[in-house]
Amino acid sequence: MNTNKHGYPTPETVAPDVIEQDRKRAYWRANIRLIRTLLIIWAFVSLGCSILFVPLLNNIMLGNVPLGFWMAQQGSIFTFVILIFVYAIQMDVRPV
């Protein structure tokens, strides 16, 4: 690290550190936003579609099965796997 005659870092060495910290903060801010969004979807599917809205969803038939039952048994699992893939792809695409 370059220092001046008083031992303090020169602006050339301080600026990259500040830029790097800003990049890290922006990365984690975006990561937390993505996690929050995926958790909201997860909560809606697991609580809403599988428990709270089952009577409404049971009016819709998916083949020979009511949609509320299907969401509680299979649909929520499919949604959770899709959420995992979305998170993994987003983390792979996002620069560090």
From TrEMBL:
UniProt xrefs under Pfam families: DUF4212
Parts of the chain that traverse the membrane: 34-57, 69-89
Keywords: Membrane, Transmembrane, Transmembrane helix
InterPro entries in the record: Na_symporter_ssu
Keyword Membrane: yes
Sodium symporter small subunit domain span: 25-92
Domain of life: Bacteria
Protein's name in the database: Sodium symporter small subunit domain-containing protein
